[in-house]
Write a structure and sequence with these properties.
The protein is of the alpha/beta class and 277 residues long. The termini are far apart. The model has no long low-confidence stretch (mean pLDDT 97). The protein binds adenosine monophosphate.
């Protein structure tokens, strides 16, 4: 049985006797995307710790905190089979003790995109990730490029606070149709899957449009029209941004690295994806 840790005391005991700790924070409902982070950690670390914590502060009241899939037994079996050392499942009372009043705000890269549509989100993420990093004190922490803006926010926080941890990005794991694996794909009905699978094709088309000289405005208009035509009910954003700032631009500087990013809804399910340019 995989070691399940729920107290800081037990976690500290494991950390003290470990060398080269790799850490993979998750909200559970694990899929092969999460396991690709675990595999990356196992390659370079002796001890691999995965946390499962569905963080209430990164959900707004109207979002899916209550219905977020929780599959702890299955998750633990997957992590055991993957050779993970321990799963850390801190209780809410440890993460948010009575009177909790401290939060981390990362400005800059958090302002746009998800920051506009989910204003509560990055403060919740930054605070919980900072706490988890302080708990686990890993040498390396692994984050998926699936949540590219989140990765940029975490990198900024770790640099700004001089946290002694290396942030390792891991490419997005996709199904055979290119759909990015996500715990929220479990919400999709079969006929929604066809729509969802078109999302990554639209990212590819945006990149082709950009490289053929279309303006940011035209790239976005074409992508939005295609997404709606494909059956998405609403598009929060579909845009290509410079990786460093994620800020909107009126023309592309082709010498800078860019990222194509999209967030769109099918019914109440909100999907995000992104690709490098
Ligand atoms: P979550 O459980 O959704 O909070 O995700 C935990 C970690 O897994 C985050 O670093 C995500 O970016 C990463 N992740 C989620 N889906 C994928 C995927 N399809 N490919 C790679 N990493 C992923």
């Amino acid at each position: 049985m995989i070691k399940r840790i729920e107290t800081l005391q037990d976690l500290r005991a494991l950390v003290r006797q470990s060398e080269r700790i790799g850490f993979v924070p998750t909200m559970g409902a694990l899929h092969d995307g999460h396991l690709s982070l675990v595999r990356a950690a196992k390659e370079v670390c002796d001890t691999v710790i995965v946390s499962i914590f569905v963080n209430p502060t990164q959900f707004a009241p109207h979002e899916d905190f209550a219905s977020y899939p929780r599959t702890v037994e299955k998750d633990c079996a997957l992590l055991e089979a993957a050779g993970v050392t321990a799963v850390y499942m801190p209780p809410v009372s440890l993460m948010y003790p009575d009177g909790f009043a401290t939060s981390i705000t990362v400005d800059g890269v958090s302002r746009y995109l998800e920051g506009e549509f989910r204003p509560h989100f990055f403060q919740g993420v930054a605070t919980v990730v900072a706490k988890l990093l302080l708990h686990v004190l890993p040498d390396k922490a692994f984050f998926g490029e699936k949540d590219f803006q989140q990765l940029q926010v975490i990198r900024r926080m770790v640099d700004d606070l001089n946290m002694p941890v290396e942030i390792v990005p891991v490419p997005t794991a996709r199904d055979e149709y290119g759909l990015a694996l996500s715990s929220r794909n479990a919400y999709l009905f079969p006929d929604h899957m066809i729509i969802a699978r078109s999302l990554n094709k639209v990212l590819d088309a945006m990149i082709v449009d950009m490289q053929s000289g279309l303006s940011p405005k035209d790239v976005e208009t074409r992508a939005r029209d295609t997404l709606l035509k494909n059956g998405f009910d609403d598009v929060d954003y579909c845009t290509i941004r410079p990786c460093a700032t994620l800020a909107p631009v009126s023309s592309y500087n082709m010498h800078e690295p860019h990222r194509a990013l999209v967030a769109a809804r099918i019914g109440t399910t909100r999907l995000i994806d992104n690709k490098p340019v």
